[in-house]
Protein backbone atom coordinates (compact mmCIF):
# COMPACT_ATOMS: atom_id res chain seq x y z
CA UNK A 1 0.00 0.00 0.00
CA UNK A 2 2.82 2.39 0.84
CA UNK A 3 4.48 1.78 -2.52
CA UNK A 4 1.25 2.47 -4.41
CA UNK A 5 0.77 5.79 -2.61
CA UNK A 6 4.38 6.80 -3.26
CA UNK A 7 4.17 5.94 -6.96
CA UNK A 8 0.88 7.84 -7.31
CA UNK A 9 2.42 10.92 -5.72
CA UNK A 10 5.52 10.75 -7.88
CA UNK A 11 3.49 10.28 -11.06
CA UNK A 12 1.45 13.34 -10.17
CA UNK A 13 4.64 15.38 -9.70
CA UNK A 14 5.91 14.16 -13.09
CA UNK A 15 3.11 16.19 -14.70
CA UNK A 16 4.86 19.36 -13.53
CA UNK A 17 8.42 18.19 -14.22
CA UNK A 18 10.45 18.61 -17.38
CA UNK A 19 10.76 14.94 -18.32
CA UNK A 20 12.54 14.16 -21.61
CA UNK A 21 10.13 13.18 -24.37
CA UNK A 22 11.20 9.49 -24.67
CA UNK A 23 10.66 8.96 -20.93
CA UNK A 24 7.17 10.45 -20.63
CA UNK A 25 4.33 8.19 -19.54
CA UNK A 26 4.93 4.53 -18.83
CA UNK A 27 8.71 4.68 -19.34
CA UNK A 28 9.35 7.05 -16.43
CA UNK A 29 6.90 5.05 -14.29
CA UNK A 30 8.98 1.91 -14.90
CA UNK A 31 12.21 3.74 -14.03
CA UNK A 32 10.68 5.08 -10.81
CA UNK A 33 9.28 1.65 -9.93
CA UNK A 34 12.70 0.05 -10.42
CA UNK A 35 14.44 2.61 -8.22
CA UNK A 36 11.80 2.22 -5.52
CA UNK A 37 12.11 -1.58 -5.69
CA UNK A 38 15.84 -1.32 -5.07
CA UNK A 39 15.20 1.05 -2.16
CA UNK A 40 12.70 -1.35 -0.57
CA UNK A 41 15.11 -4.26 -1.08
CA UNK A 42 17.57 -2.35 1.09
CA UNK A 43 15.10 -2.60 3.97
CA UNK A 44 14.66 -6.37 3.55
CA UNK A 45 17.22 -7.41 6.16
CA UNK A 46 16.44 -4.75 8.76
CA UNK A 47 13.27 -6.23 10.24
CA UNK A 48 12.65 -9.89 10.95
CA UNK A 49 8.89 -10.59 10.91
CA UNK A 50 7.64 -14.08 11.68
Number of helices: 2
Q: What letter string, H or E per element, gives the SSE order?
A: HH
Tally of individual domains: 1
Mean pLDDT over all positions: 85
Distance between the termini: 20 Å
Over the alpha carbons, how many angstroms does the gyration radius reach? Answer: 13 Å
Helix % is 55-70%
Task: Give a short account of the largest sheet.
Answer: none
**What fraction of the residues are assigned to beta strands by DSSP?**
under 5%
- Class derived from helix and strand content: mainly alpha
Would you identify the regions where 5 or more consecutive residues have pLDDT less than 50?
none
The gross shape turns out to be: elongated
Number of strands: 0
Please describe what this structure looks like:
By secondary structure, the protein is mostly helical. The chain is elongated. It contains two helices and no strands. It starts with a helix and ends in an 8-residue tail after the last helix.
Write the layout of secondary structure elements.
Blueprint: H1 2-14, H2 26-42
Helix pairs in contact: 1-2
Would you kindly provide a brief summary of this structure?
This protein has 50 residues and is mainly α. It has helices at 2-14, 26-42.
Features:
single chain; 50 residues; mainly alpha; 2 helices; 60% helix; 0% strand
Amino acid sequence: TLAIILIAGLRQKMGYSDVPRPFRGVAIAMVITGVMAMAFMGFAGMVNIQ
